């Protein structure tokens, strides 16, 4: 079975990466059939972005890589969903050092997010080593090795696999269905194991679409330069070099920062025709906790909207409390089910902001 012909598309911020993917996939589906084209990504969010466009592709071919592997193996629910049962059999691992709180307590609240900031568990380390294709003989921590052996032994006894196991099995037996072209969105976020699964897929063409400068998943085992390794002939690589979103000021600052990375692929990338501005604010999370006005953040402009970004959701707690205290409407259109972030709903927030600010 031959390896697929690999191609790469580099898409820096705002260059129309998703639009380019959808256009290419649509043309390919019309030519080769909607069942011969697949679009995969690492996250459901990226898949939702692709499926929000009109693509004439079999819906079952628009999935995350994990979901596609699970289906090809006809596998039951992941072993992680049975963690409570595992901990009943192996009580010595029922602690914050061994298993992540999110798996032990089956919740995704801010308490667990805070706990996860405290360090990586033995389970996390084992998963990363497997995702990075590091042989167990090279693992240094005996506690990580012991937990991994017990976990995999328990999984085999139950006849189930964990998320990483789906990938390992799909690669070993090459269970993914034959395709003509497989497109991979946000390819830079995939781990060495995930990329290996993709590169052993029985497809004629494999198109990796991404940008190593935008890697967000090193914490889960991704290694940015694996996306563009090995080297490809120039005619099999394409750079989307014109941003339609990023203005000159933001582009200049971001380019200066990212150029400091030691290992990266240099790309021609130009901003849109608009100056824009970058304003550095001294406003801190502590200021929100103390009830300081958010004037520096543009809070006093009723005709504009602002986005507030933090690394973790718990960092927004004081800002949310402040916004509530002054009656300012806010919402998170990306987490609509979280009522704490959407107290009055997105539509109502947009309608009300002109009156309350």
UniProtKB/TrEMBL annotation:
Keyword field contains Transcription: no
Ranges for domain UvrD-like helicase ATP-binding: 1-247
UniProt-listed Pfam families: UvrD-helicase
GO MF annotation, one: DNA binding
Keywords, sorted A to Z: ATP-binding, Helicase, Hydrolase, Nucleotide-binding
Keyword Secreted among record annotations: no
BP GO terms, sorted: recombinational repair
Name assigned to this protein: UvrD-like helicase ATP-binding domain-containing protein
Record lineage: unclassified sequences, metagenomes, ecological metagenomes
């Amino acid at each position: 079975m031959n390896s697929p012909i690999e191609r790469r598309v580099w898409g820096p911020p705002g260059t129309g990466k998703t639009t380019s993917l959808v256009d290419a996939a649509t043309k390919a589906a019309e030519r080769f059939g909607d069942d011969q084209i697949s679009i995969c990504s690492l996250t459901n969010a990226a898949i939702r972005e692709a499926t929000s466009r009109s693509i004439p592709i079999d819906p079952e071919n628009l999935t995350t890589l994990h979901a596609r592997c699970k289906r090809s193996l006809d596998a039951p629910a992941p072993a992680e969903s049975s963690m409570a049962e595992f901990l009943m059999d192996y009580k010595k691992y029922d602690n914050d050092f061994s298993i992540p709180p999110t798996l032990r307590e089956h919740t995704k609240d801010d308490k667990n997010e805070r706990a996860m900031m405290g360090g990586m568990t033995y389970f996390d380390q084992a998963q990363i080593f497997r995702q990075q294709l590091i042989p167990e003989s090279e693992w240094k921590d005996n506690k990580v090795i012991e937990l991994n052996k017990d976990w995999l032994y328990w999984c085999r006894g139950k006849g189930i696999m964990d998320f990483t196991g789906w990938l390992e099995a799909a690669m070993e037996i090459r269970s993914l269905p034959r395709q003509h072209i497989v497109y991979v969105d946000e390819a830079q976020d995939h781990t060495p194991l995930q990329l290996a699964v993709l590169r052993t897929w029985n497809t004629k063409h494999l198109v990796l679409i991404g940008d190593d400068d935008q890697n967000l998943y090193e914490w889960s085992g991704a290694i940015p330069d694996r996306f563009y390794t090995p080297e490809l002939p120039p005619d099999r690589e394409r750079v989307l070099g014109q941003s339609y979103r990023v203005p000159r000021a933001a582009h200049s600052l971001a380019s200066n920062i990212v150029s400091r990375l030691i290992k990266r692929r240099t790309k021609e990338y130009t901003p849109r025709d608009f100056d824009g501005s970058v304003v550095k604010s001294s406003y801190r999370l502590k200021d929100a906790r103390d009830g300081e006005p958010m004037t520096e953040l543009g809070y006093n402009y009723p005709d504009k909207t602002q986005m507030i970004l933090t690394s973790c959701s718990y960092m927004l707690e004081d800002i949310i409390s402040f916004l509530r205290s002054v009656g300012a409407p806010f919402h998170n259109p990306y987490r609509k089910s979280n009522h704490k972030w959407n107290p009055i709903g997105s539509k109502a927030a947009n309608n009300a902001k002109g009156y309350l600010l």
